[in-house]
Design brief:
Chain A is an alpha+beta fold and 354 residues long. Chain A has 11 helices and 10 strands. The mean pLDDT of chain A is 96.
């Protein structure tokens, strides 16, 4: 596991260990752990990490926030931390101050569009919005006649049809029907829906990478405990090689996600290189979630298939996170088109530029 | 918690980009002059001695080594750039690649000073080709089963036995080989092997070519009959070769050559689909590019850790495991997508010819230089499973 070498991650890991221990919360079917966890995270200023101090946040760097998301993935945290961070970041792009409490972003899919009417109201439907039901406010990216705007919306004004993703977290349909936002401001020049989607992709990639690190860890530990055919299953070469492949998938996810995070943290604007980094991270991490998660389950056998065991907290969430902000199939098509458009002889220079 | 796997997002420093431009310009000149055709990875004769000397003259061989041995004292990340640009261009690196990557560093560490002064500058000038004598007819992945004997004689050793699958032995000037100098002990079956510098093209060495399934002749059987090696060609500890093999392997395992071997088919596919690909082609290309980018970022990360003096043995093995499996599958994935390329694509024939060759090359990629099974064993040990 990556050592926490910054104070934001250290703080978060302490809170996660104390209040979101997977073993403990897996047995708490009523979710009584969620409120104290959220309160502790909020008191530490973590949900508004990416919001500058003059917009009501704690003004952490992009890099620190990304590291925090990786840590959240290692604990498969099931509160809207990533979503509130993204919402705060989106609002801050238009210098809109963030309110307290849970937030999420809409749209959360590259295909959905929210419209800003001339009277200042919003209409449109956003599907698969993570944690919409838990959110008190939405940060909305909307298309108006004069270009894109960013709006802060009271969640009570929107219609929410609750749903669950495969990880049992809320993933809801949010409908805006002539909803008046609290605040609306123009999006900065060059900011488009892909910018928001790619930022979401990198957040999800880091979470997937974190969950894979934990899946590797608990799978290795289990294989060193479980005895079959009179020896620890870790001593069987077939199991060793499966775990080596899981390590490879975990490593690939970590490398792709942290590379994309580093690229965004050091970029002035979202160019083709950032597009490659972020889209590739989402594609490769989604593939790793499938391949790596399957191995973690194979190693655990039937016990890993039970609700009593914590494995599903990581494996199913990693699979669910593939879908948010555009699936790997969506981004593969987009990346493939970009590569084809640039031409065969420009492919290597693009890859080598990273 | 399991031991941390680290893949920090290391970037190549600015000075590498200047070097990259120089390498690209050099290769463009070589292509223009007809030295090699980047679209023909399947050329029959992969040996290019004059090209090797010109690369040496640029200062790109042994570039990380001390200046007194002809090196440039440049970083591993700079060497990384030269390696990847050569590989992507399908440049004929056969003559110098092993010497530069592997044999030179072994000599630097274990050869006597006068041997280093004699040989290393010639590697840097691109004059010497090296082979690696590891495998034997009954000893491949199980290196420590090697039986070729080096027995004590006046002033050195007499070697008898056979090495096999030895790439480039037919053109090599030297080989770095392991021979048995003692029997293994009960406590340590790895004991008793010694590393030697072997001068090729001498009496007592016979090189027999072996045809490969690609139609090329790159590897060989090398038979030693009372071949004499002088004492000053012993590399490192007698009977202790097993202690010397670990750290170099990280360099060997994680370089760009471990995922770019069949890269050319991807470029050619992109050319064939044109600038407005259908959804299926775009999706397929997008995934392959995402996987390629990830591999490269992992590989650069390991190179950066090596440059910083770390020994990322497990990470390097992961790069080779994932990288070689990827480059092995790549021609097949490209073939899947090529089925939908328009008949009118102007490079269709080139793509098909390349695919034929890449598909025939693919099986060796997960065998050479440490099989997938050996790599996964090393990773498993790193995870605390063995």
């Amino acid at each position: 596991m990556a050592e926490s070498d910054n104070i934001v991650v250290e703080t978060a890991e302490k809170i996660f260990s104390d209040l979101a221990d997977p073993q403990t919360i897996n047995h708490d079917k009523k979710g009584a752990w969620k409120a104290p966890l959220w309160q502790a995270l909020s008191e530490a200023g973590l949900p508004l990490s990416w919001v500058p101090e003059d917009c009501g946040g704690s003004g952490a760097s992009l890099a620190d926030g990304f590291a925090l998301l990786n840590a959240a993935g290692r604990f498969a945290v099931a509160v809207p931390l990533a979503e509130t961070m993204l919402a705060g970041w989106l609002l801050a792009q238009a210098k809109i101050a963030s309110p307290d409490g849970e937030m999420t972003v809409a749209p959360a899919s590259p295909k959905d569009r929210i419209t800003l009417h001339p009277d200042g109201s919003l209409s449109g439907r956003a599907r698969s919005v993570p944690f919409a039901k838990a959110a008190k406010h939405f940060a909305v990216l909307a298309q108006g006649n004069g270009g894109l705007s960013i709006a802060l919306v009271d969640a009570a004004r929107a219609r929410i049809e609750a749903g669950l993703n495969v990880g049992y977290d809320n993933s809801d349909t949010v409908t805006f029907d002539k909803v008046q936002p609290i605040t609306t401001k123009p999006a900065p020049k060059g900011f488009d829906q892909n910018t928001l989607m790619l930022m979401g992709c990198v957040a999800r990639s880091l979470q997937i990478a974190g969950s894979l690190e934990s899946m590797l860890d608990i799978s290795v530990r289990y294989s060193n405990e479980r005895v079959a055919f009179e020896k620890k299953i870790s001593k069987f070469q077939a199991v060793q090689h499966n775990l080596a492949r899981l390590a490879g998938e975990s490593a690939a996810a970590l490398a792709a996600a942290t590379s994309a995070a580093d690229a965004i943290a050091n970029a002035k604007f979202f160019d083709e290189a950032i597009f490659l980094e972020a889209a590739a991270a989402k594609i490769r991490c989604a593939e790793a979630a499938e391949k790596g998660g399957a191995i973690a389950h194979q190693v655990h056998g039937a016990i890993g298939f039970t609700m009593e065991h914590i494995l599903h907290r990581y494996s199913l969430r990693a699979l669910a996170w593939r879908d948010d902000f555009g699936s790997e199939s969506h981004w593969a098509v987009e990346l493939g088109r970009l590569v084809a458009h640039r031409g065969a002889d420009e492919l290597w220079p693009l890859v080598a530029s990273r | 918690m399991t031991a941390a796997l680290r893949f920090d997002p290391i970037r190549l420093p600015e000075k590498c980009e200047q070097l990259r431009k120089e390498v690209r310009a050099f290769l463009a000149d070589e292509i223009a002059a007809g030295t090699f055709d980047p679209h023909k990875p399947n050329r029959e004769d992969t040996d290019a001695p004059e090209f090797s000397r010109r690369v040496g003259a640029k200062g790109w061989l042994g570039m990380t080594w001390p200046k007194k041995y002809g090196g440039q004292e440049r970083s591993f990340l700079e060497r990384y750039v030269v390696t990847e640009e050569m590989r992507v261009a399908n440049a004929p690196t056969r003559r110098f690649f092993v010497a530069d990557r592997q044999s030179g560093p072994v000599l630097l560490k274990y050869a006597p000073e006068h041997v280093k002064m004699d040989i290393l500058p010639r590697i840097c000038r691109g004059e010497l080709c090296f082979a690696i004598g590891m495998s034997e007819p009954n000893s491949g992945s199980d290196l420590f089963a090697a039986k070729t004997r080096a027995t004590r004689t006046d002033g050195g050793y007499l070697v008898n036995g056979t090495k096999i699958w030895t790439s480039s032995a037919h053109i090599a000037d030297y080989m770095i080989a392991i021979f048995r100098t003692s029997a293994p002990t009960r406590e340590n079956r790895r004991h008793g092997l010694t590393q030697f510098l072997v001068k090729m093209k001498q009496p007592g060495i016979q090189v027999n070519p072996i045809g490969q399934i690609t139609g090329q002749y790159e590897f060989n059987e090398v038979v030693f009959t009372d071949y004499f090696v002088p004492d000053d060609h012993v590399l490192g500890e007698v009977d202790g070769a097993w202690k010397q093999a670990t750290s170099e392997l990280a360099y060997e395992r994680s370089g760009p050559e471990r995922f770019l071997e069949t890269y050319y088919v991807l470029t050619e596919l992109v050319r064939a689909v044109g600038d407005e690909p259908d959804t299926r082609s775009a999706e397929g290309i997008g995934r392959l590019v995402a996987q390629l980018h990830t591999m490269r970022r992992m590989s650069v990360s390991v190179a950066g850790m090596l440059q910083a003096g770390k020994e990322p043995v497990v990470e390097a093995s992961i790069v080779k495991d994932i990288g070689t499996v990827w480059e092995q599958q790549l021609p097949h994935r490209v073939r899947d997508l090529a089925a939908f390329v328009e008949e009118t694509a102007t490079n269709r024939e080139t793509l098909e010819r390349q695919l034929d060759f890449a598909i025939k090359t693919a099986p060796k990629l997960t065998i050479q230089g440490g099989t997938t099974e050996v790599l996964r064993g090393i990773i498993a040990r790193g995870l605390g499973l063995r």
